[in-house]
Design brief:
Blueprint (H helix, E strand, L loop, with lengths): L2 E5 L2 E3 L5 E8 L7 E7 L6 E7 L5 E3 L7 E6 L4 E6 L8 E8 L15 E2 L3 E5 L2
Parallel strand pairs: 2-11
Antiparallel strand pairs: 1-3, 3-8, 4-5, 4-9, 5-6, 7-8, 9-10, 9-11
Length: about 130
C-alpha cells in the first residue's frame, strides 16, 4: 500500500517562499500522477497542481500559475511544490495525493485521487 508524507509547511510572511515535499513509500510504481491540494478552514478542498508519472508533465490551477512549481525526484520517490510570492489567501493545509485510477491525464479533482497524505499547514501572515 502506498504511503504519502508531506513536510515543509510553516509560517511565512506575504511574498515569501516555502517548498513542500511529498515522500512516497510502499507501492510507489504504476500510479498515473501526484497532485497537490489545499483546504482552508470552512472551504472545500481544491486542487493546486499535479504532475504526470509518464512524462513529468505538469498542470496548475489558475490561482497559483506562475507562482508555484511542481517537480519530482524519482530516485527519492518525492514530489515537491515550490511556492513563491505567497499570499495570505494561500493559507491552508496542503495535501499530496496519488492517483492509480483512470489514465494519463491531468486532473485536480480530489475524488479522482486514491491515496492521501496527512497534510502540512501553510500559514501566510505578517
Amino acid at each position: 500500500q502506498l504511503q504519502l508524507v508531506e513536510s515543509g509547511g510553516g509560517l511565512v510572511q506575504p511574498g515569501g517562499s516555502l517548498r513542500l515535499s511529498c515522500a512516497a513509500s510502499g507501492f510507489t510504481s504504476d500510479y498515473y500522477g501526484i497532485g497537490w491540494f489545499r483546504q482552508a478552514p470552512g472551504k472545500e478542498r481544491e486542487g493546486v497542481s499535479c504532475i504526470s508519472n509518464s512524462d513529468g508533465g505538469t498542470y496548475y490551477a489558475d490561482s497559483v500559475k506562475g507562482r508555484f512549481t511542481i517537480s519530482r525526484d524519482n530516485a527519492k520517490n518525492t514530489v515537491y511544490l515550490q511556492m513563491n510570492s505567497l499570499k495570505p489567501e494561500d493559507t491552508a493545509v496542503y495535501y499530496c495525493a496519488a492517483r492509480y485510477s483512470g489514465s494519463y491525464y491531468y486532473t485536480l479533482l480530489p475524488y479522482e485521487y486514491d491515496y492521501w497524505g496527512q497534510g502540512t499547514q501553510v500559514t501566510v501572515s505578517s
